[in-house]
Amino acid sequence: MHEVFPSFSQKNLGYATINIATNGPEQEVNLIRHNQIPPDFDAFHSVKQAHVLSSERQWYFYEEVRMHIQENAKRDIYCPLSSVSKPKKVVQKFDQLEFQFLL
């Protein structure tokens, strides 16, 4: 049984250099089909910015999700304590008349 040890290079995109054996001769293999247009490799390196979570969402993660992360070291990474003070919940109270009307 033969093992293949591929190596990739940024200088020659779309190709891999393989060895059938550890000290065997190297062979370059084209990974892209001949009738296929090579992909735009610059598109793979674009960085996308993450959306900022609202303070309510940050507190939700801290209070409700954090306890389910098993590794303590990862808790601070995934659900850190929010730097914004906890928002107060607004409870709307109805008048007695409105409440009776809704029933």
Described by strand count, sense and barrel closure, the largest sheet is: 3 strands, antiparallel
Give the integer mean of the pLDDT values: 76
Please state the CA-atom Rg, rounded to the nearest Å: 28 Å
Sheet-strand content, in percent, reads 5-15%
Biggest sheet: strand arrangement: 1-2-3
Uncertain ranges: none
Helix content: 10-25%
Distance between the termini: 78 Å
Order of helices and strands: EEEHHH
The rough form would be described as: elongated
Number of beta strands: 3
Number of helices: 3
Structural class by helix and strand composition: alpha+beta
Overview of this protein structure:
- The chain has a three-stranded antiparallel β-sheet, with no helix packed on it.
- The chain has three helices and three strands, in the order E-E-E-H-H-H.
- Among the domains are: 1-33, no CATH class; 50-85, no CATH class.
- By secondary structure, it is an alpha+beta fold.
- This is 12423_t:CDS:1.
Short description:
With 103 residues, the protein is of the alpha+beta class.
What attributes characterize this protein structure?
103 residues, alpha+beta, three-stranded antiparallel sheet, 14% strand, 12423_t:CDS:1
Secondary structure layout plus pairing:
Layout: E1 5-8, E2 15-19, E3 26-30, H1 55-65, H2 72-78, H3 96-102
Antiparallel strand pairs: 1-2, 2-3
